[in-house]
Design goal:
Elements: H1 6-15, E1 29-33, E2 36-39, H2 40-53, H3 64-87, H4 94-107, H5 112-121, H6 126-148, H7 155-168, E3 175-185, H8 192-210, H9 215-222, E4 236-237, H10 243-249, E5 261-262, E6 266-277, E7 280-281, E8 283-294, H11 302-317, H12 323-330, E9 341-345, H13 352-360, E10 365-366, E11 370-372, E12 375-388, H14 391-421, E13 424-426
Antiparallel strand pairs: 1-2, 1-13, 3-4, 3-6, 5-6, 6-7, 8-9, 8-12, 10-12, 11-12
Helix pairs in contact: 1-6, 2-3, 3-6, 4-6, 6-14, 7-14
């Protein structure tokens, strides 16, 4: 949903002073929104924030007049939404603002005291910053209330979308697959002895796989093709693979390995690593992890918690203690009794910053301490696996995709409606 993200607005506030600064004596009104003024100083402050927040990949700025008009329009729309939120009883209490402030601090690897000090150095007072937080939270809650209630996704909608996706799956242009490849080379026009030797080696590889050795390890030992990245060919459309490869693998589930197939070049063994239709995979990556969580409070600052977990990590890596023992002794959440074990989890179960760490860890690797909205974590990835989505999960995913698409449409219409019902007088078009 294209709702304004309050984190974006607040990170802008970290880089430059907002409308906390005292307006100059020559300030004037550039627009009225239902009799509420937007001043020239406020507009210039917002323009500076936009300019200074742009990264190197943002591209060139539009002409000054066009930029000014776009920023003013955004301010008008936000002001109209804030007024509607207040008129319709949307409220944000101090606890919600406290939590939002703590989230911003954590995402910038700061504690709240450090965040406030940074703001003061940049000319933004704590009171002004908290007003920005309150206003953006008000807008978000209004949008959630107004937009979510207008989105209706029926079972018929889901069934139609699933049928359309199934029909599209028959088109090679819509299918993508990532295959692992183990290759035993043969000379051109091989002799019977050379062919027998290659087949004997192929059977040896198959026997070792059945005994439990991994496909990836056997690729490293035997394959005459590319061995980097465990022989992965990479995600590509099926019509970009040799027909021999697709014929050997198209009936296999994700994670399954084909029979040996022969080409003019040699013998090939293929493993289906991932399959997608229209960019969507029917599998999901799940992580089995454990963690130790410390919650900063009056007796333990965020910095102290981070240092404590960094020291714990070093002791575990040195073999002086175990992760499980430290989790049982220290962790301040419900997983402590299980040695910090969080079980298998699919996408979306953990907060984004936690999932990002899991995605880049190798199995049996322990990350550096992570600060999240819940506290400070020490995370170990135990295992990673691909699992097929159940029919119920496929239906739920399709429902969520439809909801997201519908939400964008509803949101855009709702914003136009709010803007259209507001009385707006632009006094200084620039």
């Amino acid at each position: 949903m294209k709702m304004p993200v309050w984190i974006f607005s607040l990170l802008l506030a970290l880089s430059t002073a907002g409308h906390a600064q005292t307006a100059p004596s020559d300030d004037y009104i550039v627009a009225l929104v239902n009799s509420e003024p937007i001043t020239h100083a406020e507009l210039q402050s917002q323009i500076r924030q936009v300019v200074e927040s742009r990264g190197p990949q943002s591209g060139p700025l539009p002409p000054a007049a066009e930029l000014r008009a776009a920023v003013l329009e955004r301010m008008v729309v936000e002001r109209a939404q804030l007024q509607l939120a207040r008129e319709t009883g949307v409220r944000v209490d101090a606890a919600a603002i406290d939590q939002a402030e703590a989230n911003i601090a954590a995402q910038n690897q700061l504690d709240v005291v450090q965040l406030r000090a940074n703001l003061e150095r940049r000319g933004t007072t704590q009171a002004a910053f908290r007003r920005q937080l309150r206003d953006q939270l008000l807008i978000n809650r209004l949008q959630e209330r107004e937009v979510e209630t207008r989105i209706k996704i029926s079972d018929t909608d889901v069934e139609a979308a699933l049928a359309a996706r199934k029909e599209a799956a028959s088109d090679p242009q819509n299918q993508e697959v990532n295959l692992g490849h183990l290759f035993l080379a043969l000379p051109e026009n091989p002799s019977a002895a050379a062919l027998a030797q290659a087949q004997q080696q192929a059977q040896k590889i198959r026997d070792r796989m059945q005994a439990g050795e991994s496909f990836e390890a056997l690729v490293q030992e035997f394959s005459a093709a590319e061995r980097s990245n465990a022989g992965q060919i990479g995600m590509r459309r099926t019509d970009r693979y040799p027909p021999l490869f697709i014929n050997a693998s198209q009936a296999l589930a994700v994670g399954a390995v084909s029979q040996w197939v022969r080409s003019d070049a040699g013998l090939h063994l293929l493993k289906v690593l991932e399959r997608r239709v229209n960019g969507l995979s029917d599998t999901q990556v799940q992580h089995h992890a454990r963690h130790i969580l410390l919650r900063p409070d009056a007796a333990l600052t965020q910095e102290q918690a981070t240092q404590q977990l960094a020291a714990v990590r070093q002791r575990i890596l040195a073999g002086a203690t175990s992760f499980e023992a430290q989790a049982r002794a220290l962790s301040q959440d419900g997983s402590a009794a299980q040695g910090g074990d969080l079980g298998w989890a699919g996408p979306g179960l953990f907060v984004p910053e936690f999932e990002q760490v899991l995605q880049r860890l190798r199995e049996k690797e322990i990350a550096e301490p992570l600060v999240s909205r819940f506290g400070v974590h020490l995370i170990e990835l135990l295992e990673r696996r691909n699992v097929d989505l159940t029919p119920a999960q496929l239906r739920e995913r399709e429902r969520n995709l439809l909801r997201t698409k519908r939400a964008d449409e509803v949101f855009e219409g709702w914003v136009r409606d709010v803007r259209g019902r507001a009385f707006v007088e632009v006094r200084d078009p620039g």
